[in-house]
Structures are given as C-alpha cells and as structure tokens.
Amino acid sequence: MIKGLKFDDKGLITAVVQDAQSKEVLTVAYMNEESLQKTIETGETWFYSRSRQELWHKGETSGNTQKVVSIKTDCDKDALVVEVLPAGPACHNGTTSCFTETIVQKDQVGSVDIIPYLAEVIRQREIEMPEGAYTTYLFEKGIDKICKKVGEEATEVVIGAKNRDAEEVKWEAADLLYHLFVLLQEQKINVYDVLKVLKTRHEEKRASTKK
C-alpha cells in the first residue's frame, strides 16, 4: 500500500487531514513510512513531528483522536488526503480546524457549505460564550428555552405555509433550522449523524422497493 509513494529527501510526505463527513480541511501534517504504517494498522492518525523529530499519535494526550476512513494519494503520489472522523478538535487551540483565519474571501458561503459552517459557529459559541451573542443567550438559558424556540419557530413555519406565504416560510424555516442546530449542539449530537439517519432510511427504502 505504501509502495510507490514519493517521500521527500527527509523521508516525509504531506498529509492533508479532512473531515470525512463535512469535508472540512482540519489540518496539514507530515508522515514518514513508519507513521503511515501505524496509521494504517491502528486505524487512527499518526504523524511525524519535524520539530521534535519523532512520531506522535493524534489525540494520545488530549483524547481528540481521528478515526481513519480513507487515505488517498494524488496523481504524483507525493501527497496524501486522509479522511477521518474526529473525536474532538483538530487544532491545539481548541478549534475544529487549524484553518480559522480568513485571508481572502471573495464569494459568499455556498448553500451546501453553510451546514458545516453554521454547525461550527454554534459549537464555538458554546465554547467561547461571547457576551451579547444570541446563541450565548440560548445556551445560558438552557434546554427549556432552546426547546421552546424550536417549537415556536416550527409553529411559525406552519402558519406561513397555511397562509401560502413563500417568503415567510423561507425565513421561518431558516430560523427553525438555526434553533434546531443549537438544540443538536446542546445535546452533543453531530448534525451529520442526523444526515446519516436520513441516508440510511433512504437506502433502506430503495432496497425494499427493489424486492
């Protein structure tokens, strides 16, 4: 499996670590043959530290391990993309990804990209609890307030639909999704676990119709 990969003159290969569900780039690290072999054997990421000049197992001390889903190489075989299911933040600063500082952003967040983006913003709000933020207010008030808001927004969606008011439905549906995301974060449920349930149901339904 390692045969054919092109390690540099220091015996290293670049490893781009990506969330297998959200597709967000979590970090960029380096592997040598030994750390790559350990990654394959254990099913969790191992890297080579250039500063310490030793292997390190991601999450060994923090508990923020990364379960490997797949390892891919590029056409030149001199770089890897490691898709993982993270058990916690990838960055030592406590953020999901090491890539948090935007240098240039010309386009708005895409309609699909907003799902991991919104989930991460809400997760960070719960960690940092910035004063004056509405999300902070919801977490401070607790589960009863959050559940009440989910119920209220769901009712507003129903009212908009009954009134045949498409604009109202769009705005209220967005409010409902936001508050639902807050509820999922409060319950420590990854939004992608919910999407996996939908996918499983869909696949089961397709399988049953073929019988």
TrEMBL record:
Top-level EC class as recorded in UniProt: hydrolase
Matching InterPro entries: His_synth_HisIE (IPR023019), HisE (IPR008179), PRA-CH (IPR026660), PRib-ATP_PPHydrolase-like (IPR021130), PRib_AMP_CycHydrolase_dom (IPR002496), PRib_AMP_CycHydrolase_sf (IPR038019)
Catalytic activity, reaction form: 1-(5-phospho-beta-D-ribosyl)-ATP + H2O = 1-(5-phospho-beta-D-ribosyl)-5'-AMP + diphosphate + H(+); 1-(5-phospho-beta-D-ribosyl)-5'-AMP + H2O = 1-(5-phospho-beta-D-ribosyl)-5-[(5-phospho-beta-D-ribosylamino)methylideneamino]imidazole-4-carboxamide
GO molecular function, one term: phosphoribosyl-AMP cyclohydrolase activity
Subcellular location(s) per record: Cytoplasm
GO biological process: L-histidine biosynthetic process
Keywords attached to this entry: Amino-acid biosynthesis, ATP-binding, Cytoplasm, Histidine biosynthesis, Hydrolase, Multifunctional enzyme, Nucleotide-binding
One Gene Ontology CC term in the entry: cytoplasm
Pathway entry: Amino-acid biosynthesis; L-histidine biosynthesis; L-histidine from 5-phospho-alpha-D-ribose 1-diphosphate: step 3/9; Amino-acid biosynthesis; L-histidine biosynthesis; L-histidine from 5-phospho-alpha-D-ribose 1-diphosphate: step 2/9
Pfam families membership: PRA-CH, PRA-PH
Location of the region described as Phosphoribosyl-AMP cyclohydrolase in the Swiss-Prot/TrEMBL record: 1-114
E.C. no: 3.5.4.19, 3.6.1.31
Ranges where the record places region Phosphoribosyl-ATP pyrophosphohydrolase: 115-211
Ranges of residues in domain Phosphoribosyl-AMP cyclohydrolase: 28-100
Family label: In the N-terminal section; belongs to the PRA-CH family.
PANTHER family named in the record: HISTIDINE BIOSYNTHESIS BIFUNCTIONAL PROTEIN (PTHR42945), HISTIDINE BIOSYNTHESIS BIFUNCTIONAL PROTEIN HISIE (PTHR42945:SF9)
Protein name as annotated: Histidine biosynthesis bifunctional protein HisIE
